[in-house]
Design a protein that fits this description.
Layout lengths: L9 H6 L15 H7 L3 H11 L4 H4 L5 E6 L12 H19 L2 E6 L5 H11 L5 E4 L6 H12 L4 E3 H20 L8 E5 L3 H13 L3 E6 L2 E2 L9 H9 L18 E4 L7 H5 L6 E4 L9 H5 L4 E4 L14 H10 L7 H13 L19 H15 L6
Parallel strand pairs: 1-2, 1-3, 3-4, 5-6, 5-8, 8-9, 9-10
Antiparallel strand pairs: 6-7
Helix pairs in contact: 5-13, 6-7, 8-9, 8-14, 13-15, 14-15
Length: 389
């Protein structure tokens, strides 16, 4: 097909031929090198691994390689666009793994959406990798896929749409609370969006000790006893919204300390204006936040978005490269809740005394982030008893 209008578009030019490649780590310059890298020498390594499977972590790429797996059903804000169209995103994720964490990553887009088939396929691929990063799998299937793979595999399985977002949100919220002179336990939060990221954010905030959090979906607030809740939301209703609030997202905002938007919906300025003094607004939907940051800033002390053209960008790249770097470094069998909390604390701590309304979270190119997260995750993995190296 003709290239126009792509030929002169810099975005398409950057993506031409893909964004990643496989490169050799050793030279093959003659028969001697060939005999060591491939047959006959390679047979000795294969035999040793067959006798002692753990040697694969020393003598293959497994120890430093992650599979980035998607079925293309929830790609960015584009929705269910299929596996082929999802590949540029998965390539980009692999690029970020390498650039920020030194982790090799392979994008894998699967032409199946059935939960059983996804689990079986990823499990069959798992011996080739040291970890599995699930990406852009629609809710609620993503929860079951991750839970089943975590139970089945002895390597880290991490759905970044859930946990990467949750880690960075917690880091920023902890600093925002500190700036306003409050502890997390003093805060009441409202999360708009009960998809993968919204539910994960609510759960990590509870783990970190937030005062209360209510979550809403398209039908309004999730509460105990609400008709029509799927099993994931029914479980959420049991642990959130202790005040038993009902109605719309906006009806829960008067007096609330925190609003976190992960829904793609809009929120009226009047609802933000009704929040408690020193309000914190994280309008994270991309590219269009739930409320324009400049409008929110007129009523809130701290405002964050998912965009790079406003202060306080909540960007998953602050989390996943370091999380996997730390997990791989100690051969963690899984990524625990404690490891996620440690990652959030490591990110937040980097701000230190530089904390301001426009600087509650490090920028994505801060070179301190991935090493700090990796070290914290590795230390917590050992404390949680999941480290094997």
């Amino acid at each position: 097909m003709p290239e126009y209008p792509y030929a002169t578009d810099p975005v398409f030019q950057m993506h031409r031929g893909g964004k990643i490649e496989v490169s050799s780590t050793i030279p093959v310059n003659g028969p001697a090198d060939l005999s060591l890298a491939y047959t006959p020498g390679v047979a000795r390594v294969c035999t040793a691994i067959a006798d002692q499977p753990e040697l694969a972590h020393t003598y293959t790429w497994v120890a430093n390689t992650v599979a980035v797996v998607s079925d293309g059903t929830a790609v960015l804000g584009l929705g269910d666009i299929g596996p082929a169209a999802a590949m540029p995103v998965m390539e980009g994720k692999a690029l970020l793994f390498k650039n920020f964490g030194g982790v090799d990553a392979v994008p894998i887009c699967l032409a199946c959406t059935d939960v059983d088939e996804l689990v079986e396929t990823v499990a069959a691929l798992a011996p080739s990798f040291g970890g599995i990063n699930l990406e852009d799998i629609s809710a609620p299937r993503c929860f079951e896929v991750e839970d089943r793979l975590r139970a089945r595999l002895d390597i880290p399985v991490f759905h970044d749409d859930q946990h990467g977002t949750a880690i960075v949100t917690l880091a920023a919220l902890g600093n925002a609370a500190r700036l306003t002179g409050r502890a997390l336990s003093d805060l009441r939060a409202v999360v708009a969006g009960a998809g993968a990221s919204g539910i994960a954010v609510a759960k990590i905030l509870l783990s970190a000790g937030i005062g209360d959090v209510a979550v809403s979906d398209r039908k309004g607030l999730v509460y105990r006893g609400r008709d029509g809740l799927n099993p994931v939301k029914a479980e959420l209703a049991e642990i959130t919204n202790t005040a038993g609030l009902t109605g719309s997202t906006e009806s829960a905002l008067p007096g609330a300390d925190v609003f976190i938007g992960l829904s793609g919906a809009t929120v009226a300025e009047s609802a933000i204006a009704a929040m408690a003094p020193g309000a914190i607004v994280f309008a994270l939907s991309n590219p269009d936040p739930e409320i324009h940051p400049d409008v929110a800033r007129a009523h809130a002390r701290v405002v964050a978005t998912g965009r790079s053209d406003f202060p306080n960008q909540i960007n998953n790249v602050l989390a996943f490269p370091g999380v996997f770097r730390g997990a791989l470094d100690v051969r963690a069998a899984q990524i625990t809740e404690g490891m996620k909390l440690a990652a959030a604390d490591a990110i937040a701590t980097l701000i230190g005394d530089e904390l301001t309304e426009d600087y509650v979270i490090p920028g994505p190119f801060d070179p301190r982030v991935a090493p700090a997260v990796a070290a914290a995750v590795a230390t917590r993995a050992r404390a949680d008893g999941v480290a094997r190296g």
